[in-house]
Design goal:
eleven-stranded mixed β-sheet; TIM Barrel; alpha/beta; binds zinc ion
Length: 291
């Protein structure tokens, strides 16, 4: 039995080693189109030390695995994790991390990106957007489904910088709610930005919905400036592009997320199988000994 336990432990170690060896980040470089850097960004991501399950630096590395150049960490009414991620990510080789917050009120959720401290929500979205701008950030309506429509008055829409047109909710609800809101937003603010975001907490895929941001520089400042100027393209769940027609044409066919090379994928799979078999063996041996 001791031999079996030793073999199981060796399998766990081999699995961890194989998984570590297989974990090579793909080379990512922003696209270049028409004099702009086109940053692939997920501007609505939740992190641990808040309401997400991954640490900010893990999110920055995971973003690169999904071909993202930038993420905004946007916990509910909290900015601590985002600031930590912004500081650490460049030191670890992760994607650009922009500090943000999901300003969360009963009738509206508002993403603020490029800010340094939390923004009050009690005085309504127009006042919150004003404060986001005063702090140098950009403001985006989060998942504005029918439930949230009454929370948005015309004054708020006129000062809003962007609205989500792609969000994981639309994979089962359909794109209509967000399209209707986006039309209303564009009628009040024709230069407003189209945004696609994953609202990642636990499950799903980072960057499942993403925004192509036409920036002058790959930095938080460059990203915020581009969003505030409406230079974005996002595809909704039906593959319909939203954003300025000239930018949609400039982008062309959007690049597919990176695919793991077969050898790397095989090593990762083998590592998982080894580790799971080893852990099962360790549990089995322990229960056998107790009986
Ligand atoms: Zn929300
Ligand atoms: Zn959210």
């Amino acid at each position: 039995m001791r031999n079996a336990r030793t073999i199981a432990a060796a399998l766990v170690i081999a699995g961890v080693a194989a998984g570590t060896a297989a974990d090579r980040l793909p080379e990512t470089r922003p696209l270049s189109r028409g004099g702009y850097l086109v940053l692939q960004a997920d501007l609505h991501v939740h992190s641990f030390l808040g309401d997400g399950t991954l640490w900010p630096w893990d999110l920055a590395l995971e973003a690169r695995r999904h071909g993202l150049d930038a993420i905004a960490i946007t916990n509910h009414n909290q900015i601590l994790a985002a600031r930590l991620g912004r500081w650490l990510a460049p030191r670890l080789g992760g994607a650009l991390v922009v500090a943000g917050e999901e300003i969360t009120a009963p009738r509206y959720h508002l993403i603020a990106v490029g800010i340094d401290r939390t923004i009050g929500w009690r005085e309504g979205p127009a006042r919150a957007i004003e404060e986001v701008h005063a702090r140098g950030g950009a403001a985006i309506a989060a998942h504005p489904t029918r439930f949230f429509w009454p929370g948005w008055d015309d004054a708020a829409l006129r000062s809003l910088d962007g609205a989500e047109v792609c969000h994981p909710l639309t994979y089962y609800q359909g794109p209509e709610h967000l399209r209707v809101f986006f039309s209303r937003f564009k009628s009040e603010n024709p230069g407003g930005a189209a945004i696609g975001s994953s609202d990642w907490h636990v499950f799903g895929s980072l960057g499942l919905c993403r925004t192509f941001v036409f920036a002058h520089e790959a930095s938080e400042r460059g990203l915020v400036e581009a969003v505030r100027s409406g230079r974005t393209v996002a595809y909704d769940v039906k593959g319909v592009p939203h954003g300025d027609a000239a930018l949609v044409a400039l982008l062309g066919t959007p690049p597919a997320p990176p695919i793991e090379p077969p050898a790397q994928a095989f090593l990762a799979l083998a590592g998982r199988i080894c580790a799971l078999a080893g852990m099962a063996g360790l549990c089995l041996f322990r229960s056998s000994r107790r009986s």
